[in-house]
Design a protein that fits this description.
CATH topology of the largest domain: Methylamine Dehydrogenase, Chain H
Strand order of the largest sheet: 2-1-25-24-23-22
Largest sheet: 6 strands, antiparallel
Shape: globular
Strand content: 25-35%
Number of domains: 2
Number of helices: 12
Distance between the termini: 93 Å
InterPro entries: WD40/YVTN_repeat-like_dom_sf, WD40_repeat_dom_sf, WD40_rpt
Keywords: Repeat, WD repeat
GO cellular component, one term: nucleolus
Mean pLDDT: 85
Organism: Marchantia polymorpha subsp. ruderalis
CATH superfamily of the largest domain: YVTN repeat-like/Quinoprotein amine dehydrogenase
Structural class: alpha+beta
Pfam families: WD40
CATH architecture of the largest domain: 7 Propeller
Helix content: 10-25%
Length: about 625
């Protein structure tokens, strides 16, 4: 007699299903699971947030052992793995494939070897397809990241990876994939490349990259060269040469970098952080700087560079921060530390958070932690001015609504009023604006009107919001190639605004745009007052200060002071430190001392101090 049992289970019930299989096998050995590929796919898909790695690995091991370790079952596992990892929906949602790749070293043998040996040829076959230089990277981005992850996991040797990338860089039809592979390999495997590679191989790789000159790869090349400490030869220029800086006003090219009586001069560096510094805030009341970065430490500095206080974030690090000056509250966006993932690499990452610190007269003390359980990221934060205890954030939020009951990611600008809740930990947004279509990278206030604020995004738009209104009240920009209004041609990285209706935006398209708020309309369509391009590299940060019309500007290649008072902006490169050391990429800039002192922080873990004179 044959007995067929059909059971429909959800992902959370798979452990119970395995218990059922074991019970049935205690009665007979002739028990088979019909839809193992589907079970594998369900399990592997649970790895997306990195919180179930050990559990999923254990359940897959059980399924393998309970179903006979056959060649067919290995094929089922490989097919399920690749269907999840190479699903383009991951690219649309900006989801990394790395959490899925971490399953490979946890698979039992011989499954680990079989999946690994089948995966690499599949990845390389897809990456070596002939494509135009301008090809959409969505078609192969996951494969490039999977390749880099295999190098990181030491399933592919760094020397072999370099040889492959060099060969592809030299072929125009493979160059787009090769540059993407190299960028992801630098991102995921930088210590392996810089510490374990043959210097001759790295020199050959650098030489191959020098021959990549297409504009489409400008940002990739800047990132790779800055990360590796490489630089390509630059033609000699003088301070008043148009080759140093390409400026435009009303669409016409203007002369560039000029010498002038006012500039930024390197003074000293504060040392204390152990990893990259992402964010700073200046407390005018106590005349101190607060910085935070990848090491999870918040440091309060005196103006002469002494550490007056350190605050350890238990499970997060700061990616953005701001101070509410009248209420003496420090607000910090927290990203989960990798080491907070639990023992034995279980990667039980805590959700992102917003932390409020209060000044008790002697130091900063945590007042509350808002855990954002339904969010993937809180990317930026800005405290509202005046006596109102409110702030705005940019957030990536998990929402239901996809077919099949899955989740999607929504990008939201959130407005919070702390007085609306009895405790900070239970705070909910008063308003959520969901009109951005991609990651919200920055928010800023509009000083002439305390009800207004702005946001910039990876969707190329700058939007204006009114906390009293439940929708966007205007956009800056003109109609782009897509047929939609956009401010930039690539991701916007930063915004700042003055009390004279001047707004600055900058981004990965290497441009800094000046806007006049008075030209804004509900329908958008207003062009910039001026356009500035400094050194052909992406702009990381702009910070208005020094005078009502000047701003410090950080790019991938340098630090500048720019005067936007005229229709032809005037820019000057910051004077270097006396030892002529190469400055790190500055992720944040903060003015202090009546805006005569500039603090700059970034990749080299220092807080560099510049004076304006």
């Amino acid at each position: 007699m044959k007995l067929f049992i059909e059971i429909e289970i959800s992902p959370d019930e798979i452990p119970l299903a395995n218990e059922l299989f074991r019970t049935l096998r205690s009665l007979t050995e002739h028990v088979r699971t019909r839809d193992l590929p589907k079970l594998f796919r369900i399990l592997i898909a649970r790895l997306e947030d990195g919180n179930h790695l050990d559990q999923v690995a254990a359940e897959i091991t059980t399924l393998l052992s309970e179903n006979g370790w056959s060649e067919t079952i290995y094929d089922d596992l490989f097919g399920a793995f690749t269907s999840v990892v190479f699903n383009q929906e991951l690219v649309v949602r900006q989801q990394s494939v790395v959490p899925f790749m971490l399953l490979l070293p946890r698979l039992p043998e011989p499954a680990q070897t079989k999946v690994r040996d089948a995966l690499l040829p599949k990845v390389l076959k897809h990456l070596t397809v002939k494509r135009p230089v301008e090809a959409s990277r969505m078609d192969f981005f996951n494969h490039a990241e999977a390749f880099a992850a295999l190098v990181n996991l030491e399933f592919v040797s760094t020397s072999g990876a370099i040889t492959t990338i060099i060969a592809l860089l030299r072929k125009p039809e493979n160059r787009c994939a090769a540059v993407t592979m190299l960028g992801k390999t630098v991102e995921l495997c930088l210590p392996q490349l810089t510490e374990k590679c043959d210097p001759n191989a790295l020199a050959e790789l650098n030489a191959a990259l020098q021959n990549v000159t297409e504009d489409a790869f400008k940002y990739d090349i800047n990132y790779i060269e800055d990360s590796m400490g490489w630089s390509r030869p630059q033609p000699p220029v003088s301070l008043d040469s148009t080759r140093v800086s390409s400026l435009q006003s009303s669409g016409e090219p203007k002369k560039g970098l000029v010498d002038g009586p006012t500039g930024l001069y390197a003074v000293e560096s504060f040392l204390g952080h152990r990893q990259t510094v992402f964010a700073m805030a200046f407390d005018d009341k106590r005349n101190q700087l607060i910085s935070g970065g990848k090491d999870g430490t918040l440091i309060a500095w005196t103006t002469d560079g002494q550490i007056s206080e350190t605050v350890e974030m238990a499970r997060h690090y700061a990616c953005s921060m701001d101070i509410h000056p009248s209420l003496q509250t420090l607000l910090v966006c927290g990203v989960a530390k990798e080491e907070a993932s639990g023992p034995a690499g279980s990667r039980l990452l805590p959700p992102p958070c917003i932390v409020s610190y209060g000044s008790n007269g002697r130091g900063w003390k945590e007042q509350g932690l808002l855990s954002k359980e339904t969010s993937k990221l809180v990317s930026c934060i800005k405290a509202m001015g005046g006596s109102e205890h409110a702030f705005v954030t940019g957030e990536t939020v998990h929402t239901n609504g996809m077919e099949g009951g899955g989740q999607r990611l929504d990008e939201r600008v959130c407005y919070y009023d702390i007085q609306n809740s009895s405790s900070f930990s239970s705070l909910q947004p008063v308003r959520q604006y969901a009109e951005h279509e991609d990651l919200i990278t920055c928010v800023c206030l509009f000083p002439p009107n305390s009800n207004l604020f702005l946001s910039g995004s990876r969707d190329f738009t700058v939007r204006v919001w009114d906390r009293r209104v439940d929708r966007c009240i205007g956009l800056f920009g003109t109609v782009g190639k897509s047929g939609r209004l956009q401010a930039h041609d690539a991701m916007i990285t930063c915004l700042d605004a003055s009390d004279t209706n001047m707004i600055l935006s900058a981004g990965m398209d290497t441009r800094i745009l000046r806007w006049d708020f008075r030209t804004l309309s509900n329908q958008g369509g207003c062009g910039p007052v001026s356009t500035l391009q400094l050194d052909d590299s992406a702009v990381l940060k702009v910070a208005l200060g020094g005078s009502p019309s000047t701003a410090a500007v950080s790019t991938l290649r340098g630090l500048y002071l720019v005067d936007f008072a005229l229709s032809r902006p005037i820019a000057r490169l910051a004077d270097p430190f006396k030892d002529n050391r190469r400055i790190g990429r500055y992720h944040d800039l903060k003015w202090a001392g009546n805006r005569s002192i500039l603090y700059a922080a970034g990749d080299d873990m220092r807080i560099d101090v510049y004076s304006l004179r």
